[in-house]
Design goal:
single chain; mainly beta
């Protein structure tokens, strides 16, 4: 093992050789270690909302189709010790500038760690 200090980087050289000829091919690998104080995500997705994720952008305002009764948020952490918290607030629809009576159906927020693409959200009236 090669020790890499917190926030440091190091280069290592690996060799692959052919068993029949002994010919070697070298590979140089640069290894960097995070500080552990990072707060950026690697990836963020919200099903039903199209947006470009930028790790430096910390606030997004997204709109989902009215047929969604779940908000499915998929994320990939930059550091495995990070924790994530999600908040949302309901907006009141308006008709002609006046607030329309609120839909009393609750919306569920689901957080998923991305190991690929998170599953599709359930739409109203689907089982």
């Amino acid at each position: 093992p090669v020790a890499v200090g917190i926030g440091d980087s190091t280069s290592i050289r690996l060799y692959a050789s052919r068993p029949d000829t002994g010919a070697k091919q070298s590979y140089d690998v640069e290894v960097s270690r995070l500080l552990g104080s990072e707060t950026e995500l690697k990836d963020l997705q919200v099903h039903g909302a199209a947006f470009l994720f930028d790790p430096a952008q910390r606030k997004y305002t997204l709109q989902l189709p009215i047929s969604y009764d779940q908000i499915v948020v998929g994320y990939t952490l930059k550091d495995n010790e990070q924790r994530i918290r999600c908040t949302a607030q309901q907006e009141q629809p308006t008709i002609g500038g006046e607030v329309r009576p609120a839909d009393t159906q609750a919306v569920e927020i689901i957080l998923r760690w991305l190991q690929g693409v998170p599953g599709s959200p359930r739409k109203r009236n689907e089982e």
